[in-house]
Automatic annotation (TrEMBL), chains A, B:
InterPro entries: Beta_hexosaminidase_sua/sub, GH, Glyco_hydro_20_cat, Hex-like_dom2, HEX_eukaryotic_N. CDD domains: GH20_HexA_HexB-like. Hydrolyzes the non-reducing end N-acetyl-D-hexosamine and/or sulfated N-acetyl-D-hexosamine of glycoconjugates, such as the oligosaccharide moieties from proteins and neutral glycolipids, or from certain mucopolysaccharides. The isozyme B does not hydrolyze each of these substrates, however hydrolyzes efficiently neutral oligosaccharide. Only the isozyme A is responsible for the degradation of GM2 gangliosides in the presence of GM2A. During fertilization is responsible, at least in part, for the zona block to polyspermy. The gene is HEXB. It is found in: Cytoplasmic vesicle, Secretory vesicle, Cortical granule; Lysosome. Residues 204-520 form the Glycoside hydrolase family 20 catalytic domain. Residues 1-19 form the signal peptide. PANTHER family: BETA-HEXOSAMINIDASE (PTHR22600), BETA-HEXOSAMINIDASE SUBUNIT BETA (PTHR22600:SF38). The keyword Secreted does not apply. Its EC number is 3.2.1.52. The lineage of its organism: Eukaryota, Metazoa, Chordata, Craniata, Vertebrata. This is Beta-hexosaminidase. The active site is at E359 (proton donor). It comes from Pipra filicauda. Its main location: cytoplasm.
């Protein structure tokens, strides 16, 4: 990310000042009503989403807003390509984004207010358009976002036009989100924006949400809705934990039996068309889709549709009929994996595949006489972590041969598998994750932090604060090591989550992680975050995301006549 | 409840045998597939709602099912008034219930399957109708359910007709729910029911759900949806915590300023028409609506629309501009309350009103010189609990004068207010609630238990088991005292709950409380409950309640082609 920011900073010729300092000095205090003698002064008497300056989420790296307001006329206001932009009206990605953000800004109240009152009745000058300028020679309209993509942007809102500059379309998407957050509707139904200047870029390049479609199947619509919410929070990685022990909903082209037998039902699957749709929907929002096919553990559902893939377990010299992890001693296993990952590498365009490797239970391997024989032959002694590493290295080699990068859970590193230099290690064990980050980056591997952000663990109250307080770089290590932490992920494992509760359980709790991964390190004021998060949650609700409330109160739009 | 049961048992001439013994011996074991060597044998490989005998919730007091199956033809099957019933086709309550339960049983797949295959293709004999017989001279079609209503019923399902007998319509509603739970759809789309006999009645007469519409406004639709869910779980009391500090959404006829000024917004209110609708919707499902108007604390929102109602707080001899609890020393307070509760008594038909009385903060009263003077005059010394009791007793007298019974939170009892003999004390403090139940019933007051069932406190995993394990009668006391525990309530306070997350947060967790309050004391098998609860949750989902999953897996209907 350092690179991307430097580049755009240079291109835009800006001096970057931490947002938190500038914005605080300019932000109006929110109006307060009297509070009772009971608990602390209560924010609940305010409708959330009432104060526009307090509604940016995640907070940009640098911003300056002026009290001077401009008015937008929904019937006239336009999102357009600016002069000098390398993007043309043929850029589907931007055209789609223009339409989308126009709707977010004005759509909800179009029927209600348009034309009711002439714009001239107000004193404010008008903002007539937002010009979007892509500066790179190739804007990237048809490309996929990747780890090195630039998401930086520079936004100026002044009369009569606002200008959004970005090196690539990915930065423009982030800037459009920010611009839409600046526009607010006053009590009279006028759309206003304060004159502002924003320079922004992400702190971390990898900002992910993990959804688990194996413990419960998630309908396509739930996934798409959450991609919308991710874009509202500037997340850029959808980590799709697509299969696991419980079910195999991924419909394979080469091995259709995997989902025929391994899915919960023949209808609870993701067809190739579904997968393409998810990938394209995500791409249009600047989101990478990284699929996880976790082996050799967590594979019970694979075994149903692929004979001899799993290890037969033994008891007292006899097979029990049960199966353990993937059988690592058979050539047929690797033949299967070679073909399977060839398909996965071609279906998923991202440069990375997540290969899992967590929580391998050795007991079945230990019980199997052929596996024991193999261990002896290989000289592994009784160290089954070596067998695990042997398997994983074979898989890593297979996937590398398709020119894909790899992400693995931390055990693979812990068990000393020989990893390719750029393999990303995802740290998930809550116990001493700082130490683990230190080890992983100390060994020169890029790391992604998930441990403190397991959002399936719920508790009473405002637990978003717990997620918000995490400082990812608080681990022992050199500057070089810190640079190897490429980001983090909020994980919503699916044991207790399906379409009924996914969205309110994930949002706005994941928003706390979103700001931690995007905004400057010194954006840590909980009171300020609380105010902005409430507004942000109301905005998500207005945009169709059933994000749960942060605390007591209501959203201004809920109080308006429908 | 003892009375109602004895009456119906007598009328029906039945010997009552605990359900858990009979049903277990007859229930088929669920089929199992092989499980991995990892954690315990996994129920997740089964689709929930696949096995009909395992789908009753709450478990009836006595049931016998036979393996013999009868088939229902949706195009012919009828719910009708049986011979000898005092109810006639003009009984709107039953007609509405017939229509509703017909839809629950067949509606979801009507378009899909009807007429596709002639019924004759199957070997099973047909069940042609369910005859409902109300035995009381007055069936109660136009009445309201009350604490003494009979909810007992007797159901026989044999070829060619099923017969549901109940003394009152309330029992018929419960029996219709049970009958609808027996009917299941097989893989071929046939509707089947096992020949069965069920005798059932509630263990406790008061089985409530508390919803809080002050911390967050709940749209009417959310409330109605949850009344549906309550009926599916045989709950019979909607405890409507309608106003509190944060907002006053109840639109009063006499005092419209209360919601004009005290609601979050002029649109976030319950109009008289809304309230009537909720009451009627609940009545049609055999659910009482008990409104709570909590005073003298928790009243900040009241003060906005009613001048001089709250106590002005002082600091250093000067009013601070803040206000405390209701001012208990002014005649105008009691004039207001007299008129206000006259309205409430007439708007809400239930024989009880909940008057709150919890968590009164004395600090403002202590600061106010006029209150101090009043204390002296009354000889209360510095015991502000006496002032609280003085106020509450006045309110109790007012409400009594309208012939309404009263429910209060436990502090009112703890602070030794002089209560009318039939005042119901609701026990909510989690700390030693058994001891409190003992004291309350020892003093001769009926009690309602809420303490172990605060469902707003969430935690990871299957916390329904915690609610399920509670045995309400596990408190020290005589048989007479035990009889005074009239029931319990699952409470979903609204600090972190609104329409976005209410339903999945409440259901099926509250179902655990529902069974505890309805079924026999010895229905405590967690494994059996788990299996039934999963099926019940799937049924709720099918009926439009977004109940969250109990654990990993899926519902059979989710796997069917839409």
């Amino acid at each position: 990310m350092g690179r991307a920011m430097g580049l755009v900073g240079l291109l835009l010729g800006l001096v970057l000042v931490p947002a938190v300092l500038v914005s605080t000095s300019l932000r109006h205090g929110a109006p307060r009503t009297e509070a009772g003698p009971g608990p602390a002064p209560a924010d609940w008497e305010l409708a959330a989403d009432a104060v526009s300056e307090d509604s940016l989420w995640p907070l940009p790296q640098w911003l300056r807003t002026s009290p001077r307001q401009l008015q937008l006329a929904p019937g006239r206001f336009q999102l357009v390509h600016g002069a000098g932009s390398s993007a043309r009206p043929g850029c589907g990605l931007l055209q789609d984004a223009f339409r989308r953000y126009y709707e977010y800004m004005f759509g909800h109240s179009r029927r209600r207010r348009w034309g009711r009152r002439p714009l001239a009745a107000r004193a404010e000058p008008e903002l007539s358009e937002l010009q979007v300028v892509i500066e790179a020679p190739d804007p990237g309209c048809d490309s996929f976002p990747h780890l090195g993509s630039s998401e930086a942007y520079h936004l100026t809102v002044t009369e009569p036009v606002a200008i959004l500059k970005a090196y690539e379309v990915w930065g423009a998407l982030r800037g459009l989100e920010t611009f839409s957050q600046l526009v607010h509707e006053d009590d009279y139904g006028s759309f206003l924006v304060n004159e502002s200047e924003i320079n922004d870029f992400p702190r971390f390049a990898h900002r992910g949400i993990l959804l688990d479609t194996s413990r419960h199947y998630l309908p396509l619509k739930s996934i798409l809705t959450n991609l919308d919410a991710m874009a509202f929070n500037k997340f850029n990685v959808f980590h799709w934990h697509i299969v696991d022990d419980q079910s195999f909903p991924y419909q394979s082209i080469y091995f259709p039996e995997l989902s025929d037998k391994g899915a919960y039902s023949c209808n609870l699957i993701y067809t190739p068309a579904d997968v393409r749709l998810v990938i394209e929907y995500a791409r249009l929002r600047g989101i990478r889709v990284i699929p996880e096919f976790d082996t050799p553990g967590h594979t019970q559902s694979w075994g149903k549709g692929q004979k001899d893939l799993l290890t037969p377990c033994y008891d007292g010299g006899q097979p029990t009929g049960s199966f353990g992890p993937v059988n690592p001693i058979l050539n047929t296993t690797y033949d299967f994996m070679t073909k399977f990952f060839k398909e996965i590498s071609s279906v998923f365009p991202d440069a990375y595949i997540h290969l899992g490797g967590d929580e391998v239970d050795f007991s079945c391997w230990k019980s199997n006489p052929e596996v024991k024989e193999f261990m002896k032959k290989q000289g592994f002694g009784s160290d089954y972590a070596k067998l695990e590493s042997y398997y994983i290295q074979n898989i890593l080699d297979i996937v590398s041969s398709y020119n894909k990068g790899q992400i693995i859970w931390q055990e693979v590193f812990d068990h000393k598998a020989q990893l390719k230099p750029d393999t990303v290690v995802q740290v998930w064990m809550a116990n001493s994750y700082a130490h683990e980050l230190s080890s992983v980056t100390g060994a020169g591997f890029p790391a992604v932090l998930a441990a403190p952000w397991y959002l399936d663990y719920i508790s009473y109250g405002q637990d978003w604060k717990k997620y918000y307080r995490v400082e990812p770089l608080d681990f022992p290590g050199s500057e070089e090591q810190k640079k190897l932490l490429i980001g983090g992920e909020a994980c919503l494992w699916g044991e207790f989550v399906d379409a009924t509760n996914l969205t309110p359980r994930l949002w706005p709790r994941a928003s706390a992680v979103g700001e931690r991964l995007w905004s400057s390190r010194n954006v840590t004021d909980l009171q300020d975050a609380y105010r902005r998060l409430r507004n942000h949650r109301c905005r998500m609700l207005r945009r169709g995301i059933a994000a749960e409330p942060v605390f007591v109160g209501y959203c201004a739009h809920e109080g308006r006549r429908p």
